[in-house]
Amino acid sequence: MTDVPSLRGAEVGRRIGVGLMYGLWKPRVLGSWRVPAAGPVILAVNHAHNIDGPMVMGVSPRPTHFLIKKEAFVGPLDPFLTGIGQVKVDRHSTDRTAIARALGVLERGGVLGIFPEGTRGEGDFASIRAGLAYFAVRGGAPIVPVAVLGSSDRPGRLIKALPPLRSRVDVVFGDPFDAGDGSGRRTRKALDEATARIQKQLTAHLENARRLTGR
Asked: Does the keyword Acyltransferase apply (predicted)?
């Protein structure tokens, strides 16, 4: 049986994240009350900066288990990330262990964090992988879109992957929505349709978050 990531570890990770993020940047959190207080939920986060995961982990109202590429689990980071309840995933294959662990989080009524774009990019939700739809439909979990907008979104930053230290970073949580059509179907066609619905919702949330924050 596959081990389910540690909930206690994720809570420790949340406390580390909040201390680190508020120590290095100036997070402004909007709409965190939209995250359901109980039951399975997926946080779908845009990914433009290396701090997106730790930032959301720190400011989320509930402990979050992120799917993180296995390349990040190097040296002492491997036992650390595993210890704080994060899920190692091989992006280049069908990683059944990671899938089982992620579904275990949802079956336990926990919070799963996913970067739908798969890797760090423009952070505009332009390319969304089907994995998010699969977890949402299979795990029966609503999706909460999360937009992380930092001052590094402007050109001319020193380190592309990080907002300047002590700069404001906005984290905007959106309304939860269901990806499926209510039928519970998990066919390729149903998942493709769910992915299209998800992309529309996430893009709309990002546009709204930019209007709201002036980013």
From this structure: yes
Rounded distance between C-alpha atoms, residue 47 and residue 147, angstroms: 9
Which among 177, 112, 191, 121 has a CA at the least distance from the CA of 153? 121
| CA 158, chain centre distance (Å) | 25
Query: pLDDT tens digits, residue range 81-129?
Result: 999 999 999 888 888 899 999 999 999 999 999 998 765 555 556 656 7
**CA-based end-to-end distance of the chain:** 45
Q: Which residue has 């998990």 as its token pair?
A: 186
Q: In what order do the strands lie in the sheet with 168-173?
A: 26-30, 168-173, 143-150, 41-45, 111-114, 64-69, 87-89
β-strands 111-114, 64-69: how paired? Answer: parallel
H-helix or E-strand spanning residue 150: strand 143-150
Q: What is the pTM of this model?
A: 0.91
Q: Which domains does the chain have, with CATH numbers?
A: 7-154+164-213 (3.40.1130.10)
